[in-house]
Structures are given as C-alpha cells and as structure tokens.
C-alpha cells in the first residue's frame, strides 16, 4: 500500500466529507427552524389588522423615509421599536390613539426638523398601521437596532 491518496481514499474523503457536511447542514436547518418557531417571530399573532397595516405601510411607502428592523431609508426614525418608545407595546387602543395623533399633527412645521408629510388615512387604516407597528415591535430582534430615541 502506498502512502499516497489512492482512488479508494479519495472516494472515502469525498463521501465522508459530503455526509459530514450534509449532517451539519441538516442540524443547522433544524436549529434555525426551532429558533424561528420558538423565539424570533412568535411575539404576536398575524391578525387581519396587522395584515391591513402592512398593506397601508407599503401603499404609502413609509419605508422610503423610515427603516423597519433596520431595513429601509435613514431619513426618519427606525419604527420597529417606536411602540416601545411610546410605551404602548401592549396597549392596542393607546397605540392607535398616539399614532393617530402623530399622523394628524404632521407636518409639524417645527424649525430645523425633518418633516413627515400628512397622510390622509381612514380610522381602519391607522388602526392597522398601529397593529402592524406593534407586531413589528413584538418581533424578537435580539436587542437590535438599539432603542435610541429618534
Ligand atoms: C417623506 C418622509 C416620510 C415618510 C414617507 C413617512 N415618514 Fe414618518 N417620519 C418622518 C420624519 C422626518 C419623522 C420625524 C419627525 C419629527 O421627529 O419631527 C417621522 C416620524 C414618524 C413617527 C414617529 C417616530 C418617533 O420615534 O417618534 C412615526 C410613528 C411615523 N413617522 C410613521 C410613519 C408612517 C406609518 C408612514 C407611512 C404611512 C410614514 N411615517 C411615512 C418622515 C416620513
């Protein structure tokens, strides 16, 4: 027997390596799935209001100025944690009222501040947005992005 990589050894390395990394891959898939199901997205159910709110969010291109979970534009504050900042994460009525008040007060006209345009939304649309933002707030982002006031 020679010390060199024979055909048989090369085949063993190939099959052994393939099996090993296939097993690693399966283990990582199982781990990710477990993680997603138990922690990442299970904070709040996807109700019809949340779904409506996501449509309103998309139709009005809020993402063109804001980021959500770190994705989007950096003109205006991150919004996946705005309900925490406002202290209404677990208060649907309070979340609606404060968001409604905010939207109706825009643009603020405050000197030297970036302005948010006025959006003419129905009550249902604003309620949906409030629930969508609460839903985003309940997603476990493992502390990121940091919750600095905007
Ligand atoms: C043209 C850019 C722009 C668009 C589009 C926009 N916003 Fe804003 N938004 C801003 C700016 C700028 C601020 C910060 C204003 C301030 O602090 O005076 C803001 C602030 C906010 C805040 C308060 C954030 C905080 O931390 O106090 C909320 C909530 C919000 N926007 C929701 C929305 C929603 C929902 C939409 C879509 C319907 C939207 N925005 C679309 C520019 C925008």
UniProtKB/TrEMBL annotation:
Under Pfam families, the record lists: Cytochrom_C
Arranged from A to Z, the UniProt key words for this protein are: Heme, Iron, Membrane, Metal-binding, Transmembrane, Transmembrane helix
What Gene Ontology molecular-function terms does this entry list? Answer: electron transfer activity; heme binding; metal ion binding
Q: Which InterPro entries match?
A: Cyt_c-like_dom, Cyt_c-like_dom_sf
Q: Which residues form the signal peptide?
A: none
PROSITE patterns linked to this entry: CYTC (PS51007)
- Spans traversing the lipid bilayer: 12-30
- The domain of life is Bacteria
- Cytochrome c domain ranges (all copies): 48-137
Q: What is this protein called?
A: Cytochrome c
